[in-house]
Write a sequence for this structure.
């Protein structure tokens, strides 16, 4: 069986479980957007990592499902709020929640998703519950901090590569790291192994965000799922931007700054 087939098996198992648990009822205006964003798909990378890590440490995939679900619910919540902050039109190739409904609905449904994600931990014994909740709270706060750095950097033209790396570590990679560590926790792995897998996930998350930044500039609009060039239009400080700036001569730097400050209306031919 190829690696792709193995990953697909985890994904199928996870999506079956997600569909079973994603049966939210009233009020419809609160829960329809939750069901909508979760049904849009996505790679399901984080929950797959939770399941695979649990199994690698001798745990059962079924037992790790609620932790995996918490991570995916949280990830989707952060996308809904991120799309509001960026006023993004597309997510996973489809209309974003705040565009399909409205901003207030997106905020409240996102809030509900954040709470729901914590509730999935309730199925675990107290000790595991406490450990998962502590890790999750630490992670959520770091994601918030990473998002704030990202926003702060939009109006700065002197962001350094170490600053950028710290921003993506918090915004993106800590959740990947936590997803893996949660798999280790539910499988009762040794503390040192759980910490080692967290470190692995942290580096994987950084590499993942570098690729996401690259795809924002050069991805195929048909498969990228988001608006290509969206980060550039928002004046986001991506690695690509910083490295181009570092290498550029003084004159070119001015040109680059101009290029990266383009407004949405004149974006298409310059990106
Ligand atoms: C944590 C309280 C609290 C607030 C959230 C909005 C926000 C603060 C943070 C946004 C964080 C964010 C959206 C980071 C980007 C992460 C990222 C690379 C998303 C894309 O992930 P993929 O490619 O998406 O795995 P799919 O569609 O495959 O699920």
């Amino acid at each position: 069986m190829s690696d792709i087939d193995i990953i697909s098996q985890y994904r199928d198992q996870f999506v079956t479980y997600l569909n079973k648990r994603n049966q939210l009822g009233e009020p419809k205006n609160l829960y329809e957007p939750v069901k909508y964003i979760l049904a849009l798909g996505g790679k399901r990378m984080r929950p797959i990592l939770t399941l695979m890590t649990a199994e690698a440490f001798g745990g059962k995939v079924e037992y790790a499902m609620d932790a995996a679900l918490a991570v995916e619910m949280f990830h989707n919540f952060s996308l809904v709020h991120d799309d509001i902050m960026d006023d993004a039109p597309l997510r996973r190739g489809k209309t974003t929640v705040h565009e399909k409904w409205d901003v207030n609905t997106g905020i409240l449904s996102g809030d509900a998703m954040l709470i729901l994600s914590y509730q999935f931990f309730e199925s675990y014994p107290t000790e595991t519950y406490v450990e998962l909740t502590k890790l999750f709270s630490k992670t959520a706060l770091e994601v918030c901090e990473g998002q704030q750095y990202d926003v702060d950097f939009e109006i700065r033209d002197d962001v350094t590569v170490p600053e950028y790396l710290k921003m993506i570590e918090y915004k993106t990679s800590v959740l990947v790291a936590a997803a893996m560590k949660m798999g280790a926790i539910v499988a009762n792995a040794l503390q040192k192994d759980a910490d080692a897998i967290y470190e692995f996930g942290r580096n994987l998350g950084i590499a993942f965000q570098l690729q996401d930044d690259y795809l924002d500039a050069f991805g195929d609009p048909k498969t990228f799922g988001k608006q290509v060039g969206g980060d550039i239009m928002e004046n986001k400080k991506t690695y690509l931007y910083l490295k181009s700036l570092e290498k550029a001569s003084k004159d070119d730097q001015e040109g680059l700054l101009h290029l990266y400050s383009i407004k949405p209306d004149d974006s298409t031919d310059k990106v």
User: Anything to note?
Assistant: The chain is about 75% helix and 0% strand. Residues 259-271 have pLDDT under 50 and may be disordered.
